[in-house]
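Note to self: user wants both folds in one dump. Writing first protein now.
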Amino acid sequence: MTQTESWSLFRDNWFMTLTMVVGSFIAGASSEGGGAIAYPAMTLLFNIEPDVARNFSFAIQTFGMTFAAIWIFLSKIKIEMNYLILAGIGGFIGIILGSYTIVPLIKPDYAKMMFVSFWLSFGIALWVVNFISKRNSVNKLPVLNTSQKVELLAVGIIGGVFSSVLGNGIDICTFSYVVLKYGLSEKVATPTSVILMASNAFIGFILHLFIIDTMQTEAINYLLVCIPVVIFGAPLGAFVITLIGRKTISTILISIIVIQFITALFIIRPNSELMLFSSIIFSVGLLIFFVLTKRNGAYKKS
């Protein structure tokens, strides 16, 4: 920053630095990446184009979540390799597929409603996982047959497609899937999903920076003023979660998700066509989080 005389970027973009104080904390304290806070704040509150918000999410998570992933490996925290590999391959396919086929078709308002609608379905899943379901958690997935492997790969592809449009999505798709369907412990699923999102974000970042060549200068400027925050904010979130408990963090996240959806309705004022699109995305989320996971009865209502 000194060599390029870029410190003035903080004067114009300080609001993003402040946003990522919260975003990086949430990323470290839960299964969601920093883009989960950055994207709605940028598109709904600051009226930044969704394409810029998506590319910034890729960029900032490449740095923040990669640092977190390195820390996870060095600390020898338990992860689930089958989950990571299968969902990672699916995410790679999904983010490439979505970037070339779906992203060019999504209009700005549709991208915004896609985000809040998908996250609303995840909020319901998060509520069930933490406050309704009664599960016997395990630290490792069972030996998967071919159809189960294909199913996890498909969930990864869907998550990668969502990431291609929104800047994140594969982490929450796959995290909810393995926790609800197979009862994988959050203590194992969360660090695995962090590594998974880091790899997916890196792919998206490289894709838009060097291959598609659509990484905006605006997104890079936001990245530069946020890197110093995220490399400390994520570890801080991981530390605080050990003090206040995951249910408290979940309550905060669910509240944010509901507020995001209500705010989007108020700001965008979607017409009937957009509301139909929103309903479809919400239904797809519920399909991932409940219909697929309910098949083997991995959880039951208490």
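First done. Writing the second protein, which came from a different request thread.
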Amino acid sequence: MTEHNARHGVIIHPTAIVDPQAQIGAGARIWHWTQVREGVVIGPESIIGKGCYLDAGVQIGSRVKLQSNISVFHGVTIEDGVFVGPHVCFTNDKAPRAINPDGSLKGAADWTVSSTLIRYGASLGANATIVCGVSVGRFAMVAAGAVVTRDVPDYGLVLGNPARLVGYVCPCGQRLPGGPTPTPEARACPACGRATTVGGAVAN
């Protein structure tokens, strides 16, 4: 059974915990055993899968798909149309410790959040790890299991540990011909025929 908000078309499974201070867009769906904390914004028509955790203040755009068992921590922003595969891992602290040098338990004032931005239309493959402080570009694709430690350009295809740029993908999701290029150039998609300009500096 699911709980329906008829006014906005929102579906929240009864096992999910959604803070009253969260903002849920029209037509969004939040599934089993998911927790949505205070200050979270979820855009219209987004789908939050089973067993997810959305930390305080996280921003999720519209028509985003978060698959199962994903933790999105404070400091992460996910723009519209992003796909996040199952078990993707986000981080938000570049120097994590449980305790201070004197042995006292770290509190909120004892660490610094490093922000992460996942741009419009990007896709993150299953079990990818996104180390904090990076930007993943528009319609970029991160391969399953990749560990992203630096910015990914628009349409970039990255894989491995640490993730490296091996080429580019079309907005339709298919790989474009050729490898990385330092200068912008248009490439035609062999699947849909769309011409996409790739290469050059990483967008920030």
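Dump finished. Worth passing along: Residues 183 and 200 are 4 Å apart (CA to CA).
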